[in-house]
Amino acid sequence: MLSTDLLSIGQLAARTGLSVSAIRFYEAKGLVHPIRNTGGQRRFPRSDIRRLSFVVIAQMLGLSIQDIEGQLRRLPEGRTPNRKDWNDISRAVRATIDDKIAALTRMRERLDGCIGCGCLSLKTCALYNREDRAARLGAGPRYVVAEFSESDLG
User: Fold this and answer.
1) Where are the alpha helices (DSSP H) in the chain?
2) 150 near 136, Cβ under 8 Å?
3) Residue 132 scores a pLDDT above 80
4) Distances (CA, A) of 43 to 2, 38, 87, 115, 152
């Protein structure tokens, strides 16, 4: 790889809109792998612009650092990923994104009748957890955030 194909951490920050400290964080998490020059300075391949752009987008979509790292492991090192590489990742994360969209939609619909409703009936309140029946679904406001049926509550 030619030295002209490598970017300093400052150049990479300018190209991605990330702070230098964020790039160092992503490096520590194994999302990018800079090369060290003879003076010990980090040098990043240009392909890391796209890698870090994917990281930013994936985090906006709610993917965890671990999920992102798992997907980036599928990309080739040392070359800019091509359309097929990105399509493979897109297909792999689509189900996760669809699940998150469904969960957000479900929460939005349940919250419409919940937050600030001033309800006068605990029988219809989505937050009321009579006899702690929702505990079997997990901790927290399960009636609002979990997908369940009445049979799950026993």
Assistant:
1) 9-16, 20-28, 47-60, 65-72, 83-112, 142-145
2) no
3) no
4) 11, 11, 27, 50, 54
DSSP 8-state class, residue 29? T
**Average per-residue pLDDT for the chain:** 80
**pLDDT for residue 107:** 78
Cα(50)–Cα(102) distance, integer angstroms: 28
Question: Cα(91)–Cα(73) distance, rounded to whole angstroms?
Answer: 15
Domain that holds residue 80: 3-106
Can you tell me the distance from the alpha carbon of 14 to that of 135, in angstroms, rounded to the nearest whole number? 48
Global pTM exceeds 0.70: no
Question: 123 — phi, psi (to 5°)?
Answer: -70, -30
Residues contacting 133, CB < 8 A, separation 6+: 153, 154
Residues in Cβ contact with 118 at an 8 Å cutoff, skipping those fewer than 6 apart? none
80 and 17 assigned to the same domain: yes
Please say whether the beta carbons of 94 and 101 come within 8 A.
Answer: no
Shared domain for 98 and 149, answered yes or no, is: no
